[in-house]
């Protein structure tokens, strides 16, 4: 039905996504382990926007540690 090259392109995109998602998750887990930041914060990037505006000193420190490790 589809031209052969579209099947190859679709397979390449699917394989790339399937391979890279676990790699990114493992890198985030490693970063959380190295920086002793709570895992949920690293996986969700939870402290990315909040600390500077809220004035939460502890969250701001965790945010800075995350950037130093990553």
What does this 3D model show about the protein?
It is rod-shaped and about 60 Å long. It starts with a helix and ends with a helix. The chain has a domain at 24-70. The chain has helices at residues 4-35, 39-44, 50-54, 57-69. The model has no long low-confidence stretch (mean pLDDT 74). It is an all-alpha fold. 80% of the residues lie in helices and 0% in strands. The chain crosses the membrane at residues 6-27. Keywords: Membrane, Transmembrane, Transmembrane helix.
Low-confidence region ranges: none
Number of strands: 0
Radius of gyration (Å) = 18 Å
User: Strand portion, in percent?
Assistant: under 5%
The helix fraction, in percent, is over 70%
Mean pLDDT: 74
Tell me the number of helical segments per DSSP (H or I, 4 or more residues long): 4
* Overall geometry: rod-shaped
Describe what is shown at a glance.
It is built from four helices and no strands.
Primary descriptors:
single chain; 70 residues; mainly alpha; 4 helices; transmembrane; membrane; transmembrane helix
Outline the secondary-structure elements.
Blueprint: H1 4-35, H2 39-44, H3 50-54, H4 57-69
């Amino acid at each position: 039905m589809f031209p052969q090259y579209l099947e190859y392109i679709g397979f390449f995109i699917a394989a790339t996504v399937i391979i890279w998602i676990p790699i990114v998750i493992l890198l985030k887990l490693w970063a959380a382990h190295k920086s002793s930041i709570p895992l949920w914060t690293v996986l969700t990037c939870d402290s990315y926007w909040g600390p500077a505006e809220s004035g939460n000193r502890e969250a701001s420190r965790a945010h800075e540690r995350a950037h130093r490790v990553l």
